[in-house]
From TrEMBL:
Location of the Outer membrane protein assembly factor BamE domain: 27-88
Family annotation (Pfam families): BamE (PF04355)
Keyword Translocase: no
Gene designation per UniProt: bamE
GO-annotated cellular components: outer membrane
The protein's name in its UniProt record: Outer membrane protein assembly factor BamE
Keyword tags: Membrane, Signal
Signal sequence residues: 1-21
UniProt-listed InterPro entries: BamE-like (IPR037873), BamE_dom (IPR007450)
Protein backbone atom coordinates (compact mmCIF):
# COMPACT_ATOMS: atom_id res chain seq x y z
CA UNK A 1 0.00 0.00 0.00
CA UNK A 2 2.86 2.41 0.79
CA UNK A 3 4.32 1.77 -2.67
CA UNK A 4 0.98 2.61 -4.29
CA UNK A 5 0.66 5.85 -2.32
CA UNK A 6 4.22 6.78 -3.24
CA UNK A 7 3.54 6.11 -6.93
CA UNK A 8 0.39 8.23 -6.85
CA UNK A 9 2.29 11.07 -5.16
CA UNK A 10 5.09 10.82 -7.73
CA UNK A 11 2.63 10.83 -10.63
CA UNK A 12 0.86 13.91 -9.23
CA UNK A 13 4.19 15.70 -8.81
CA UNK A 14 5.16 14.95 -12.39
CA UNK A 15 1.79 15.98 -13.84
CA UNK A 16 1.43 19.23 -11.88
CA UNK A 17 3.96 21.22 -13.97
CA UNK A 18 2.25 20.05 -17.16
CA UNK A 19 -1.07 21.41 -15.89
CA UNK A 20 0.62 24.70 -15.01
CA UNK A 21 2.14 25.00 -18.49
CA UNK A 22 -1.19 24.23 -20.15
CA UNK A 23 -3.03 26.75 -18.00
CA UNK A 24 -0.32 29.33 -18.70
CA UNK A 25 -0.62 28.74 -22.45
CA UNK A 26 -4.43 29.08 -22.29
CA UNK A 27 -4.11 32.31 -20.30
CA UNK A 28 -1.77 33.71 -22.96
CA UNK A 29 -4.03 32.61 -25.77
CA UNK A 30 -7.12 34.07 -24.11
CA UNK A 31 -5.56 37.33 -22.92
CA UNK A 32 -5.42 38.75 -26.43
CA UNK A 33 -9.21 38.25 -26.68
CA UNK A 34 -9.90 40.66 -23.80
CA UNK A 35 -10.95 44.10 -25.10
CA UNK A 36 -11.36 47.51 -23.49
CA UNK A 37 -14.93 48.01 -22.24
CA UNK A 38 -15.70 44.33 -21.57
CA UNK A 39 -17.52 43.52 -18.34
CA UNK A 40 -16.10 41.39 -15.53
CA UNK A 41 -18.53 38.64 -16.54
CA UNK A 42 -17.26 38.69 -20.13
CA UNK A 43 -13.62 38.52 -18.97
CA UNK A 44 -14.41 35.67 -16.60
CA UNK A 45 -16.05 33.85 -19.52
CA UNK A 46 -12.86 34.19 -21.56
CA UNK A 47 -10.17 33.89 -18.90
CA UNK A 48 -11.87 32.00 -16.09
CA UNK A 49 -11.43 32.90 -12.43
CA UNK A 50 -8.46 35.17 -11.72
CA UNK A 51 -5.45 33.92 -9.78
CA UNK A 52 -5.41 37.15 -7.78
CA UNK A 53 -7.38 40.36 -7.32
CA UNK A 54 -6.08 43.72 -6.12
CA UNK A 55 -7.76 47.05 -5.47
CA UNK A 56 -6.79 49.76 -7.95
CA UNK A 57 -7.03 53.55 -7.95
CA UNK A 58 -10.49 55.09 -8.13
CA UNK A 59 -12.38 52.08 -6.74
CA UNK A 60 -11.32 49.88 -9.64
CA UNK A 61 -9.62 46.52 -9.41
CA UNK A 62 -7.00 44.44 -11.14
CA UNK A 63 -7.29 40.73 -11.86
CA UNK A 64 -4.12 38.69 -12.30
CA UNK A 65 -3.54 35.43 -14.15
CA UNK A 66 -0.33 33.42 -14.20
CA UNK A 67 1.86 33.15 -17.26
CA UNK A 68 5.26 31.49 -17.45
CA UNK A 69 7.02 28.56 -15.89
CA UNK A 70 7.10 27.36 -12.31
CA UNK A 71 10.29 29.36 -11.72
CA UNK A 72 9.69 32.40 -13.95
CA UNK A 73 6.17 33.80 -13.79
CA UNK A 74 4.84 37.00 -15.28
CA UNK A 75 1.32 37.94 -14.32
CA UNK A 76 -1.22 38.84 -16.93
CA UNK A 77 -3.20 41.78 -15.56
CA UNK A 78 -6.71 42.90 -16.45
CA UNK A 79 -7.69 46.29 -15.01
CA UNK A 80 -11.27 47.34 -14.35
CA UNK A 81 -12.78 50.71 -13.51
CA UNK A 82 -15.28 51.29 -10.70
CA UNK A 83 -18.17 50.20 -12.94
CA UNK A 84 -16.52 46.84 -13.67
CA UNK A 85 -15.44 47.56 -17.25
CA UNK A 86 -11.98 46.71 -18.63
CA UNK A 87 -9.71 49.75 -18.87
CA UNK A 88 -6.48 47.90 -19.72
CA UNK A 89 -5.19 44.41 -20.40
CA UNK A 90 -1.50 43.75 -19.90
CA UNK A 91 -0.53 40.45 -21.44
CA UNK A 92 2.90 38.98 -20.81
CA UNK A 93 5.36 39.83 -23.62
CA UNK A 94 5.13 36.31 -25.04
CA UNK A 95 1.37 36.13 -24.50
CA UNK A 96 0.45 35.83 -28.13
CA UNK A 97 -0.69 32.25 -27.70
CA UNK A 98 1.62 31.16 -30.51
CA UNK A 99 4.25 29.59 -28.25
CA UNK A 100 3.99 27.53 -25.11
CA UNK A 101 5.91 28.83 -22.10
CA UNK A 102 9.14 27.01 -21.35
CA UNK A 103 10.65 25.85 -18.10
CA UNK A 104 8.06 23.34 -16.91
Amino acid sequence: MKVFVSLVALAATLLLPACTAQESFQNAENCVKVKIGMSEQQVRGIMGAPTGEDAAEGSGKTWSYLFGSATDTQPIRIQFDASGKVTAATCAPEASGSERPTGN
